Amino acid sequence: MSVHALSPAPLALVNARLIDPEQLTEARGGVLVRDGVIMALGAGVSAGALPGDVKVVDCHGDCVSPGLIDLRAFVGEPGAEHRETIATATAAAAAGGITTMLAMPNTDPPIDDPAVVDFLLRRARDTGRIKVLSAATLTRKAAGHELSEVGLLQAAGAVAFTDGLHSVADARVMRRALTYARDFSALVMHFCEDASLADGGVMNEGELASRLGLTGIPREAETIVLERDLRLVALTGARYHAAVVSSSQSLALIARAKADGLPVTCSTTINHLTLNESDIGDYRTFLKLSPPLRGEDERLSLVEGLRDGVIDTIVSDHNPQDVETKRLPFAEAAPGAIGLETLLSAALRLFHAGQVGLPDLMAALTCKPALILGLPQGRLAVGAPADLIRFDPDEPFVLDTNSLRSRCRNTPFDGSRMEGRVKLTLVDGRVAFEEQGILRG
């Protein structure tokens, strides 16, 4: 199902709790969608005040907000379709309220050639339910040595440059990459990890790792590379996004860089915001992640960083792994967890715990990632693309992996009690996901 299908019939979502992440406000009212854009919104959009050709859906007080924008999702296609395809990933994303996702370039072949960018975008148009954007590798084959052709890849449609799962170790290569990206006004999204410090590590370094008999990865593996990168940003002036920050040390560096006026932003994952190393429990490999889950004090520092605006966006870090790579001893299992379908419901844990207000939380999932990529969506405003979701933030459920739409089942929230369910997802006004019968009002 292409997101570029003919314009759907006009639709109005009324009697809703409108969440505006740009203005950080909540209000009662409705949204009128016509020709794929938001035509009107607010208290004046009600069932009795609409033209006869408009289909009216009573939201019964559910929230309506812009659709989520996920800046870090690994999709198997091309090359690892047994793990995930664009079709299955976008079905999961739509069910989770995601209307735009940025696909990482760690595929086979990697996205380091304009032809592969073109392939991914065409497949997304042909089989995707949501908008799929392509990142390209920062270096050839994401190997950290030879620079990718930023200009050609950008012309083919790549919107950001990253080696995804890998960190560029060579400072000279990283400086050249930032300089090159600056000349094309391109965004560099870097995963910060010193491979020599992380080598052999499988979880956060500390007392728990020692008790479990597992080799730890110190926070410094992240912060050493991040500090180097920020110095190179100051040297080059390139736009830079730290793909994942997971510690208070990293937050302090980002906060200082922003205070100095550097063009720097950052994300953290929903897993690092809502889980900690203790959740690993009895060697649960679905919680083996990269970077590893940190201690509870670090998780709380990330929540504070999100609330204070040091952290710009929350990502799913969706990374499907099959049974053969996860049903292994903890030290041998591959890192990664799926997260597209659970991103919103997991994020709402922070709202229900009173740690982050709902508009602020939605801003980190919608308008802020849109601003980083220069996208028109992610806003609840007249004239904006009608990428919208309707969700009940309070509806409880227990996560059953058999109900997930991803091809793999490696979720860290298996069997967890969750709150918040998406009922409707619109992409350019077209239904990408609908809970059974919801459009009947």
TrEMBL record:
Residue span, Dihydroorotase catalytic domain: 64-248
Transmembrane domains' residue ranges: none
UniProt entry keywords in alphabetical sequence: Hydrolase, Pyrimidine biosynthesis
GO cellular component terms given for this protein: cytoplasm
Keyword Hydrolase: yes
EC number: 3.5.2.3
GO biological process, one term: purine nucleobase catabolic process
Record-level Gene Ontology MF annotations: allantoinase activity; dihydroorotase activity; metal ion binding
Enzyme kind, highest EC tier: hydrolase
Family matches, as NCBIfam families: pyrC_multi (TIGR00857)
Record protein name field: Dihydroorotase
Organism: Lichenifustis flavocetrariae
Encoding gene per record: pyrC
